[in-house]
Amino acid sequence: MTRRKYILIILILGSLSTISPFSIDMYLPGFPAIAQDLNTTIAKIQLSLTAYLIGISVGQLLYGPLLDRFGRKLPLYAGLLVYVAASVGCAFTTSADGLILMRFIQAIGGCAGMVAAQALVRDLFPVTETAKVFSWLILVIAVSPMIAPTVGGYVTAAFGWHAVFIALAVITFLILVGVYIGLPEGKRADPSMSLKPAAVLGNFWTVLRHPQFLVFTLVGGIASAAPFAYIAGSPDVFMNIYGVSEQEYGWIFAFLSIAMVGSPQLNHILLRKLKSEQIINIALVYQLTVGVIMVAGVYLGLFGKTGLIAVIFLFLIGQGLTAPNASALSLAPFSRFAGSASALSGSFRMGIGALVSGTVSIFHNGTALPMVGVMTVCTFTGILIFFLGRKSAAGYAGDAAVAL
User: Does domain 3-389 fall into CATH 2.60.120.380?
Assistant: First the structure.
């Protein structure tokens, strides 16, 4: 593979992976305006984010078998078209319940890009390169929160929140064109892969019973859910508690995203000296330490706006180290069932993200404590599972069981 083709594939896969981050982040600055326009509360609008995450979780379980049966591109085209149509529906909804429903459908379509991108990494690159490729994808994904809320804030201020969803529809259609023109097919259709419920469940069970997949999916999914607490709680914390504008919130979000841009590059360096399991260990211990400081500081009232931004920045640095290594280790044992493995991994990650964002909404109390508390609990749970489960996965890490 030439360097030019390598870069092009990374950019396209990264673009597919950014559909959901853009969908999550771009409308965040519009939360107050949406709540006012639809005559509801911000807590109710936060449920549209939860609905999106639930849709991703459910949708990925559907796309996994479809990607294994029909190849990567056909289900991907269908999903992206559903996303475009649902985005237009979000723009023209007239009620909070309608927005929640459209966001769910939007997620069902958009998650095709996420599942296909992960499966294609396994298809197109050798197992020894997947952690590095996932680090590049994490870098591309991490850049999107720097752009999405900032652009969303200005679009909302200039044209209203409806225009944000029109922009998402246009961006995704352009990504679809890029997939058609520049992305290799990857694993082709496999007629032997049955779509009957018993066969699909059997494939999922084959994946789930592999110790390496189970341990690192649980660790990566739960620990990586911490940013969803931040995403769900930050509009209220910064715009209502600290009184920042939509545009200023976008810049704060962009600044905090820098924390997740640099860490994947650090991961590239660390992988030269350390194994993925060692990096996960270091990252989780670091995040738990920062998380405890963050919760204590908020509870004791030690942080103002600037202090809270600083400690969240330090916390998020660890995300770019845990996620790519956990993803690479969970998918490494699979070739034939890469689509199903990717779907299960992504479904769990987004399902936990939905639970986390909903928890922040439930415990909303007019302070930053629910947000930072849930972030820290995610990290603590992830590190607990890592220490309890890594022995059962010993001997599997880094191996590629191509028969699976």
Answer: no
